Amino acid sequence: MSTSRTGGRSARVREAVFEAASALLLERGLGGVSMPDVAQRAGVAATSLYRRWGGVTELLMDLAVERLERESPLPDTGSLAGDLSVWGRGVARIMRSPEGSAFFRVLVATAPASGSDAAARSGALYRRFGEIEAMLDRARARGEAVPTGWDIIDHLLAPLYVRTLVGAPPDEVFAQALVDRLLADVAARDR
Amino acid sequence: MSTSRTGGRSARVREAVFEAASALLLERGLGGVSMPDVAQRAGVAATSLYRRWGGVTELLMDLAVERLERESPLPDTGSLAGDLSVWGRGVARIMRSPEGSAFFRVLVATAPASGSDAAARSGALYRRFGEIEAMLDRARARGEAVPTGWDIIDHLLAPLYVRTLVGAPPDEVFAQALVDRLLADVAARDR
After folding, report:
1. Is B154 on the interface with A (CB under 8 A)?
2. Prediction pTM value
């Protein structure tokens, strides 16, 4: 009982901190967010933020992973073409929003090339890879021809991400064209 | 005469500053490079660095653009397949090196979504776009079938970049496979 109340309070604090950090990120950009500012805006002691996240980089990384996962869940429409279309267009929509683009930049900027942080990052990343593989497994079980998980990263996600980074954010028409091309390549390979 | 000596000295100072910043970047990562540290290691007054670059972000961006351009010049081999192969494999090689990967992360992390910095960034970016278009123009003049410049960014550079960012740096075999697929798509479209 006391554990569950602690869990509820803990979740509320986490959400208040995420909202404060998210607002500061949009107002000031990546370099303008500090732990004391987040603590003040969230009405939480800075010491408890340091205890929970260690530093502002870890806090922002945790925030970005949570928000991007929440806003682009992998769909299950009954066909791979439908799944990729809904998901690809959803990612394009997020990348065009100031929030989505800001969270994505956080992930990239805080991406460790290697070392101790890599495990934490890989956790989020490999969870997403696992979801993509599950989507492909469902399609395979229905007897559909499927691309590899890496094909989806290389030729659907990568162009959407890189266009965001070069300041030419993708739209849903572009996302759909990427999906069509990916599926046409799979069909051609199977022929 | 005095102008040329000033130019030579200016270029030498610039190179010393770039070497100092580059070494600090590799030792400490993006968050660990400050103007006073760069100045000290380069043996230059910090005030002159602030005068020339404004801030450490601008200095690192200038460094990253210069190094990445110097290390992956666009080739002119006499065929588009040859040009893309040499260039794509060269980019993969750079992305596997600690320096190349660090410079690339600097570019991404300092990428402004919009605003006053965007012009400076666009300068480097659009210069590169221009070089890609020149490569395609040469191929067109030889009567070859060519993809668009954006096709090259979406399906050659984007996968190479995103694999670097997710900690699975591309190798030359992968780069060559991307080139082959891009050219096969162009050939199929032309048929």
Report:
1. yes
2. 0.80
